[in-house]
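pinging the channel bc i need a second pair of eyes. not urgent but kinda urgent?? the chain im working w is below, pasted from the shared doc
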Amino acid sequence: MVHAYILIQTEVGKAAAVAAEISGIPGVTTSEDVTGPYDVIVRAEANSVDELGQLVVARVQNVEGITRTLTCPVVHL
C-alpha cells in the first residue's frame, strides 16, 4: 500500500468545499482545510504508485476550486 499527503491550493473561499468534496473520493483517508501556504491537506492511499497517480490526476485535480496540488508520497527510511 502506498500512502501520500496531497497539499492543495484553492481559489479564495473554496477550501472548505474542496475538502468536503475530496473526502468522498475512494482512496482518500482524510481531508482537512488548514491555514498556511496550502488550503487543504489530504491523506490518500492506493495499491501502487500508478494507482496513486491516477487518483490524484483523474479524481482529486478535477475537483472544482483547486488551483494547484503537490503530492508527497510517504517513505519508510
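so The chain has a mean pLDDT of 96. and Strands lie at 2-10, 28-33, 40-46, 66-73. — does that match what u expected or am i reading it wrong
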